[in-house]
Fold each of these.
Amino acid sequence: MNNKNTNLWIAELLMLCFLLLMMFRFDIFSEILEPVIGIKKNTVEWLPLHELVFQHMTIVIASSAASFLIAFTTGVLVHIYHLEGVKELLITVAAFGTTFPTIAVMALLVSDLGYGFKPVFFALALYGLLPILMSTIRGLEDIDEDIITAAKGVGMTAYERLIRVELPQSKSVIIAGVRTSVIINIAAATVGGVVGAGGLGIPIVTGIRVNDPVLILEGALPVALMALLADRIFYKLEGKQKWRIR
Amino acid sequence: MIELKNIHKSYGEKKAINGINLTFLEGEICIVLGPSGCGKSTMLKLINRLLVPDQGEISIHGREISSFQIDTLRRSIGYSIQGVGLFPHMTVSENIGIVPTIMKWKKDKIEDRVTELLELVGLTDHYREKYPIHLSGGEAQRVGVARSLAADPEILLMDEPFGALDPINRRRLQQEFLKIQSKLHKTVIFVTHDVGEAVRMADKLVLMKDGQIVDQGSPFSMIDKADQIITTFTGSNYAFELLEKRKISDLIHELMPLKPTTHNIAIHSKEEENQTEQEFSDEMSLKEALVAMIIKGSSELVVNASEGRYLLEFGVLAKAIRRGEYE
Ligand SMILES: Nc1ncnc2c1ncn2[C@@H]1O[C@H](COP(=O)(O)OP(=O)(O)O)[C@@H](O)[C@H]1O
Ligand SMILES: [Mg+2]
């Protein structure tokens, strides 16, 4: 086999190192940032930054996983049972739901579920549904008709068709949807700082309150980096599909 | 045996099949010939239940096809779809082995089968791990044929399986398929709009037009009607294509024997050697023989057969097709 495997994770590794450095030694960054911005960083007592990053990741991973399970399963079921009406309805509802401001949803959820992890988890899981649902439905829908005919023609059952043909064919579209969903959630999870779920929202919210840009950046920079990293990782997962490359 | 009784099928307003009655016999290659859009693909899809007829009955060995379990039915019918239809995300070996795989054959048995089929369709083993995108049209269609043969189905439905090929590769694959068929004796329903292909391959020929059967029979028996009908809808000359179904060796008893050459009598000079009559193999088709006569500007050819040398005269060639009619 030729070993021209260009699928190296160099950029991703660099980003990860950068993120780790930020998590454990943000003081390095503060020292660079302070003279640039011209304001001295307040010393505020809270959890160390790396703990906040873990909290943030936990929120994102848990809610994205929930989004994925629900949206993917629904998309697949709607597809195999040919529920055309339900399909359109779902997309409309999900699209409409997403136009609701996050803050409003959060406020409603907090009044029901109280402060903490739960309201953020539910809000984000809800927001993450649409891109995954859409991509699952469209991905499964947009497969070349001839391929489906061939799959039926060789005698695959609906289940075999799904596993052996439809999912492999729509994999990259579905992953692209998951990627969008996760990236939205990484940014949106900062609301956790407002409702007591922790995460990188805390330095941002505190920074705004005490008017400290460096503190805001201490929350915002890792969020941005996490989003970039997630983007890269999903991009890699989508994969160079050998069968598409001439 | 496959029987179609009074089949009708419409797509919305459009009538694709309009009252078809047909019987396909075991072990025969039946070629369905007709212009694009006449309903050929639709007919094949009705047989493996990719479509359901609006009216009429289809049976295999006397059993109505709707009474079979649908996946079992399809797995027992090899289908090569129009325009190849390989799975792009599967390798050649996964494509070929797909029916055995879903029939849950053992892995090494599938591998063996794939090896066997690659050889049968004339591809080397190093194609196994390639993806369809890396194959030429001809290679892809070979893989398509191999896939349809994989689970050794009794029936093959072939929808313009060589349609994507240039004339030379097309002809080669036709010949290879005939060779395969002479070993396997499948019941083949082969759809095409290429008259030459139809004539070359048919045991039985069915002419279709506008969703109906216009005529059917052995290729030779259809010369009168077919020549007008086919020539009008394809522009190809049916009678001329028929010449390809006969070899010179089929006419051997009507050829005039010649004396054996006496090479050892004299040592020829170079010029003399060039002047000696060009000789033709008796494996040539009558079409090639006719073309050779035209090129030479002569109404005779010298044929070199294993039994000896003969003279083929134009008169004999001209009568050959009419004689085939009564066979
Ligand atoms: N899915 C479809 N929807 C509507 N019309 C169709 C469909 N498939 C085929 N047709 C029409 O039915 C007729 C027969 O088609 P087809 O069986 O594919 O013909 P052929 O294989 O002989 O070219 C054509 O007029 C074609 O346009
Ligand atoms: Mg067709």
Amino acid sequence: MPLTTEERLRLEEKAHELRCLSVDTVAWAGSGHIGGAMSAMDILTILYHKYMKIDPKTPDLPDRDRFVLSKGHVGVGYAPLLAELGYFDKELLKKYNHTGSPLGMHLDSLKVPGVEASTGSLGHGLAIGLGMALGARLKKEAWKTFVLLGDGECNEGEVWESAMAASHFKAVNLVTIVDRNMCMIDGPTEEVMGLEPFADKWKAFGFDVLEVNGHDFKELAFALDKALAAKDKPVAIIANTIKGCGIDFIAGDYKWHYGSFDEETKARAKASLVRYKEARLVAVGLASGVAAGPLPAQGKEPAQ
Amino acid sequence: MSKMTNTKPDSEKMSASEVYGKTLSELGEKHPEIVGLSADLAGSTKIGLFGSQFPDRFFNAGIAEQNMFGMAAGLASAGLVPFVSTFAVFASMRALEQLHSDICYPNLNVKIIATHAGLSFGQAGSTHHCTEDLAIMRSLANLAVMAPADGIETAHAVRAAYERKGPVYIRINRGFDHTVYDRPDYGFEFGKAQMMRDGSDLSIICCGSTVWRAVEAAKMLEESDGLKIRVLNMHTIKPIDKEAIKKAVKETGRIITAEDHNIFGGLGSAVAEVAAETGRPFAFKRLGVPDTYSIIGKHEDLMAHYGYDENGIMAAAKEMMGRKPYTY
Ligand SMILES: Cc1ncc(C[n+]2csc(CCOP(=O)(O)OP(=O)(O)O)c2C)c(N)n1
């Protein structure tokens, strides 16, 4: 079902709020993986605030939808989302990275309610998600499993072993999303270890592939609807995103994979997020006015 | 990367990994057969310093550690000397079987310099803590294992690794270590424990981040209790300096080991194996991570939490000195 205007406005508002809380969290933590948190925030927001069946008060609800953050380093993006949903006290974000805190750089499923797997070592998440999806099928349960991968992470052989197995076992209740922000730590993905033709790789492994703008809720909803209706082949959504999206002085810069904010840069980041939010509302037709500038991250048109 | 807030931060000095990158670049100038590999951690492990100086001799394998170790095996079999760098947790576990079968079994000349070892990446949590590598690496035949105490010793270890034929694993920390040595000519020798202080009451055998802490503990115990404590920096874990351990058993009768590692299988176990074979009675205590997955936090806080910082070492030494002498 396409999103209503109210839903789109609500998601825009929520994603903005979470991007800001994520900037605060990086400041509380001392440092963090801000670039990949910002590129993933719209994806996380639409999953948790529109698609996933969850109950933050009962994190282990047996028929909840599962989410595995395979690019586990973006805890500073994921923890604010979980806290804000009520999985745990938001005040805990202020203790992020502190000695003895349950919240560290990579969120730990034994310490943080709502986290399904202790990720952080890249390449593990799709296999775990596939196992969950097969588990649901065996138990004749309707819940779905969503996995979010980084693009650099897709260098790992295990990702492709899982991809091969997901199509072999026809895991159509598994939704694979790749945050295609074109960056990894040592540089742009295509310079460090080329992934292209990326969509063709997923296709060759037996997936239906949807390429969308990962910062456009309409396009994300279109792709997620298709993925959830998959019948014979699992779906991989390649979400074209911008690392550091919304913060002008870090957007698109691979060097901002990991960083810290002092008071001044934190204020600049937040001001930039406000401008970004307003420009985006205009660009997607949810507000009138002149967009503050060209919006980055123009994804390809969704394949019909 | 944020700096660790050690009790005495020494941020003007270079971190151990920076010293590694610089030393490797110097070696690279003299030895054209040296090549470098990393897995999207060229910047973090500082092998990137070598990479920018010798771009044709550097391969970034992307985030694909198993492939990187296999490539290193192939490069070594073609006569090159690969230095491979990633975080210790991935070097010792993700690519372990490639290391075992493709590198150590054929005894290939590959040098693994693993950073962020022990609990030095404490805030990153259990998927990035690495308190198993010494145990794992010690059990691979042909592989030499080292854990230098600071930047200066890291330079020695890297050069020694190059000099030695066959595979070598070196673990170093993330961030800044306390300076243990103020000058390089202290007599470093591969496979020989470095006596930091001599003494006859008790020996503390340590490596890596615990060396500075053991020395501090020994100094404080001398001041407070007049104890004469021998501190042995066992920078080479394998082959281990058996003579130094046997002498410590014979001459001090009390042994404490301290390591930034699980107390199972690492330095403490290696020392115990040699010490037990002396057939002599001795008092013995291993300090380290007590067979658990560590809590999250700053490196020095975690070492204090598990009782192997200077205070933990002091307490263990005092407790041991208070025990009744062994009766046969
Ligand atoms: C197995 C493994 N190797 C290396 C790392 C170190 N590391 C953390 S994040 C990262 C880059 C990830 O890039 P990408 O998947 O594209 O994530 P994003 O750009 O979305 O943050 C690397 C190499 C790791 N966490 N796990």
